[in-house]
Amino acid sequence: MSRASGPRSGDAIFASVERVNAELFTLTYGAIVRQLLTDLEEVEEVNKQLDQMGYNIGIRLIDEFLAKSNVSRCVDFKETAEMIAKVGFKMFLGVTASVTNWDADGTCCSIVLEDNPLVDFVELPDTCQGLYYCNILSGVIRGALEMVSMKTEVTWTRDMLRGDDAFELQVKLLKQVPEEYPYKED
Ligand code: MYR
């Protein structure tokens, strides 16, 4: 029996299930964006809605991230950004990203995605100019960071669907709220 027609190994089946799941996820996200475009009509409103949906996901997803990753607290914003790029993106999107463009005081950086599964099969028509198709991701990061006491502004600075050469998110730390402990120090 030839290898192609023989029974597939567990690894091969697992890989193909993973691929189908990833494709289903990508197509489902596309269907959500399409529905929002139909319902809201204004691209600006769709951008806002995607960001808000991401925020709502992010404030919940942080628990899963902390539980699954078992990471200890980050010492500063630089470590947090690396954690998002290397661990967060891998865990939830199956890709990694790199952190660049730090400003002098270490409160603003860029996260550049090496791959973006959300945009597989996507091509935007001219009527969608101004759409930040992946705005859900900026919302997720903003929501997740808020749950670990960091108020941030997260914006897309490069977007391949708009003709740029990469997907790049700018993450700006606006305020770090000190953690409150449930006991008093003497
Ligand atoms: C800490 O200092 O408590 C650790 C903080 C780590 C925050 C990491 C947030 C992960 C967000 C995942 C984003 C995934 C986007 C697809």
Provide the fold topology:
Blueprint: H1 10-40, H2 43-69, H3 77-93, E1 97-100, E2 108-113, H4 135-147, E3 150-158, E4 167-176
Antiparallel strand pairs: 1-2, 2-4, 3-4
Helix pairs in contact: 1-2, 2-4
Bound molecules: myristic acid.
Myristic acid is lined by residues 62, 65, 71, 73-74, 80, 83-84, 88-89, 92-93, 137, 140-141, 144, 148.
Descriptive labels:
Muramoyl-pentapeptide Carboxypeptidase, domain 2, alpha+beta, single chain, 47% helix, 186 residues
CATH class: Alpha Beta
Distance between the termini: 76 Å
- Uncertain segments are none
Order of helices and strands: HHHEEHEE
Main sheet properties: 4 strands, antiparallel
Write the CATH fold name: Muramoyl-pentapeptide Carboxypeptidase, domain 2
The number of helices is 4
Percentage beta strand:
15-25%
Q: Supply the CATH superfamily name.
A: Trafficking protein particle complex subunit 3
* Strand arrangement, major sheet: 1-2-4-3
Shape: globular
CATH-derived architecture = 2-Layer Sandwich
Count of domains: 1
The overall strand count is 4
Bound heterogens, unique: myristic acid
Task: Calculate Rg over CA atoms.
Answer: 19 Å
Estimate the mean pLDDT confidence.
90
Estimated helix fraction: 40-55%
